[in-house]
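so the lab meeting is tmrw and i was supposed to have these ready like two days ago... anyway. pasting both below. for each one the top line is the aa sequence and the line under it is the structure tokens. i havent really looked at them closely yet so no promises
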Amino acid sequence: MHIPNELAEIAPGVYAWLPDFPGTWGMANCTLIAADSGALLVDTPYTAALTEALTAAAHRVLPSSASISTVVNSHANGDHSYGNGLFPHAEIISTDANLAHLCTEPEPAQLQTLLDQCRTDEPFDRYMLAHFGRYDYRRLRLAPPTRTFSGQLDLQVGSTSVELIEVGPAHTAGDLIVHLPDRGVVVAGDVLFIGDVPVHWAGPLSGVVAACQQILDLDPHVVVPGHGPIVGTGEVRRYMHYITELRERIHILHTQGMDVESAASVLLHKFRRPDLGLSERLAVLTATEYRHLTPSTDPLNLVRILGAAVRLAPDCVPATVPSRDTLMAELESLI
């Protein structure tokens, strides 16, 4: 596992912050578009300390006269937006639907309280501590978008053209991708995961596939996923095939009359891929698709859905977990 101290230049004036931390939650990629007049940052990290590490790395590649004046959130999940508040003078841009989606996830203080109350004798609590206990959600202030749009919004960062393209609902209700046509780059956000089983909260899964097709239609040379290493279009196609296959299997199980937990159990036992981490997310994907196959008016509750996934995949729960102080110290040592 690795937290980068430097940004990787993936195209002229375009840099990626790529945490190498597979098999866990929260370590999302961020992308910086630099110019003499200022910079645009796509997504912000999960904690204040991670955001400060990214900002320090950004200052090493930015001209002395430039600062991050614009933040774009690809969607509303905290691992892509909790760091917004550390850019108090920046314009924060996302989709209209993304702004409406903010209420479906615990705020940082609520998540901190949840973790503080976790008990190591409870399986779900151990899972939460193992994956989220390394994060310190204090010093965070929710900073929602200050500018929103629907459809497409075109920007200019120095000589770099930036196209913000709405592709949700897919991973969440308000996803967008960022296209840099002159640089051959697409920043995909969480419509694309590489290396782990994806988690998609809104769906339907056909929306995820359609969003990936929009990426392919732009014919980029480089694609930055929400999580995992940068890839080319071949990996995007393989990911689309995987999601399509999962969708078809879920639909077959639904047609057979299985309830959501039974269908998720079948996927977890028969269709795991050993090359992908976080297989418990198969249960989340099943629940997401079932909300569309058997429409529900219940509000989306991310913690409850994750709890059901953990219950259905007991082998994903560690027998023991280090103390929160140990977990946070481990992460701090990497920053």
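ok protien two:
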Amino acid sequence: MSRVLVARLDSIGDVLLAGPAVRAAANGPDPDGTSPNEVVFVCGPQGEAAAALLPGVTEVFVWDCPWIANPPPPVTRGHFEQFVDFVRNSRITEAVILTSFHQSPLPLAQLLRLAGVSRTVAASTDYPGSLLDIRLRPGEDFPEDQPEAERALGIARAAGYSLPRGDDGRLRISEVPDVHGLAGEGPYVVVHPGASAPSRVWPPLHHAAAVELLEGAGYRVVVTGQPSETALTATVAGPAALDLGGRTDLKALAGVIAGADVLVTGNTGPAHLAAAVGTPVACLFSPVVPAVRWAPFGVPLELLGDQNAPCRQTRARDCPVPGHPCLSSVSPEQVMEAVERLIRGVSSLATRRKVRR
């Protein structure tokens, strides 16, 4: 059994989108899994909790990458030696580096070479010289405008790995906890108003108005958020919605989202967590990155927001356009309508499946 390193050094959503590629690497070259691998997943601090949820991961190594993290750690010899020493002592023979279109895998490939890894696979626009054994050229060997999960899986397949037979390639997590004690009994809609980048946030009062509309239509609403977002979640929840701001770690949040009829959120980690547990998403998607690559993958989706706004594909963390029109132009009524379409669609699908049986 080989030990394969899979690297995705970004945040929660990026790590969750690497899940199908991880399962392929763990399965090995045969769909029947006759030559499985141990997968050592390397991620940044922001992605650690998500990496721990991925099926197929044997070990997680956290390394704060100076050319990925924001804010970045200082560049020191000791920081790089920490990574090289770990890899050298971990019996790792092969590596798959997963990156976004704007990131280079070559700095990490160089460290892997110094650590003695004999075979490294990645996608690289730049000439890799002897740093990569298999190089995929973005835009030539595969299209860039494809879902990020499929891009990552394509890199794993280029390394010779296959998904297990019967694996549909969607996002997954290894375990969904029972959170009835947190979320309560009966159907509900989750609203997650926060995001790591201000450019991806729908205005808080818009969220609050949408919650009021949902409650007025008879839906029970659960509002979620990080410990740093409790003021935001309290505003959005108002007097009637259940406010779970700061009360869930990522695993518990997965359980809360898994029990929901729909998740309302932006382009942020919980949107991909919803995809991993099969929950439909009404996604307030800022076009600073392309929706074709980063929208929730493999679940029923309502994409909201002006995808042709002036901020399109700027990758901006702070909105470069006064008034944040790409999202502020979306009304609470539109969100309400999107939620109802998703619920009707899922109900209709369930009815059709019963009839077929």
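from a quick look at the 2nd one: The radius of gyration is 21 Å. The longest helix spans residues 332-356. will dig more after coffe
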